[in-house]
Amino acid sequence: MSEISIAIIGCGTVAETLHLPALMKIKKKVKIEALVDVDED
Predict the structure, then answer these.
(1) What is the pTM of this model?
(2) Residues 6+ apart with CB under 8 A from 34
(3) Domains of the chain: total
């Protein structure tokens, strides 16, 4: 099975506490191509 490429728009609390931990559980199946946020920090 090939990887799914994704981008995450918004790197706030929801991304940090929900999206990224969930993606780490399936990291062999997904490739995070980009993380984008309006705040450079």
Answers:
(1) 0.74
(2) 7, 8
(3) 1
CA dihedral 9, 33, 2, 13 (to 10 degrees): -40
Residue 41 inside a domain? The answer is no
The residue range of the domain holding 22 is 4-36
DSSP per-residue letters across 5-32: EEEEE--SHHIIIIIHHHHHHTTTTEEE
**Residue 40: pLDDT band by 50, 70, 90 thresholds?**
confident
10: left (phi over 0), alpha (psi -120 to 50) or beta: left
